[in-house]
Amino acid sequence: MAAAPDGEPLKADLLIGFAFRRDFFPDKEGRDSLIKVPGGQLFEEKKAYCRRRSDDRKVVGMTKGSGRKAKAVGINHVALEVEDIDEAIEFYGKFLDFEIKSRNANLAFIYFGDQFINFTRGRRQEPDGGRHIGIAVDDKELVRETLDGMGVELIDSRFLDFLDPWGNRVEITTYTNIQFSKSPGVLRGMGLSHLEKSKEALAELRERGMAPD
Question: What pLDDT score does 97 carry?
Fold first, then answer.
């Protein structure tokens, strides 16, 4: 694994994003292809066809109901239950850079710009199945390389999913390739002003009237 000038291992910069789960992908030629879905079931061609990736992001409906409602703006934070706070910070800190704003024996808050993950003690449930969080980073392949060096087994190498030591399922995705966007000010404060969205991500944002000026 590469090293930074100070000799410390390189780690991906952390942004948070809840990646839209795509169980089906087009192949390199753009044709619909079949892949394994969570749970291990493989759809046969005669029984099911895959949707193209772009179709997964089309708005198919809106909430209904009378009366005024608050508008959901975004995800401020996620709480992950772990058994040991120090061990959680050590584990995630091996492959992600983040700020630790507060910590004690029962909880910790790790920040990445204007969002954070709250580690809290007390996980008792079984390891996650399909439930997961998506973390967007500046360098997905660096995370893959680091996890491999740590001996972390991937659940789905296509999506770069894995379970942390306490059973929380995490998906790593590339910030520049998804719609989720940090404001220029937040990126600047994180030292990530150089990140630019891919043409595909910009097209998806433009289709929804959300492309940057």
Answer: 96
Matching residue, tokens 């998906």: 171
Secondary structure (3-state) at 171? strand
Nearest to 93 by CA among 105, 78, 108: 108
What whole-number distance in Å separates Cα of residue 51 and Cα of residue 181? 25
Q: Average pLDDT of 97-107?
A: 96
For 48-66, b/e burial (b = at least 16 CB within 10 A) is eebeebeeeeeeeeeeeee
Question: What is the value of pTM for the model shown?
Answer: 0.73
Angle at 198 between CA 196 and CA 201, to 5 degrees: 115
**Residue 52 DSSP label:** P
Question: Is residue 149 pLDDT above 50, yes or no?
Answer: yes
Strand-pair category, 154-156 with 77-82: unpaired
State the SS3 of 67-94: CCCCCCCCCCEEEEEECCHHHHHHHHHC
Give residue 63's pLDDT: 81
Residue 37 in this model has a pLDDT that exceeds 80: no
For the chain, give the mean pLDDT: 81
The answer, yes or no, to whether residue 6 has pLDDT greater than 70, is no
Q: Tell me how crowded residue 113 is: count the other CB atoms within 10 A of its CB.
A: 20
The neighbour count for residue 106, using CB atoms within 10 Å, is 10
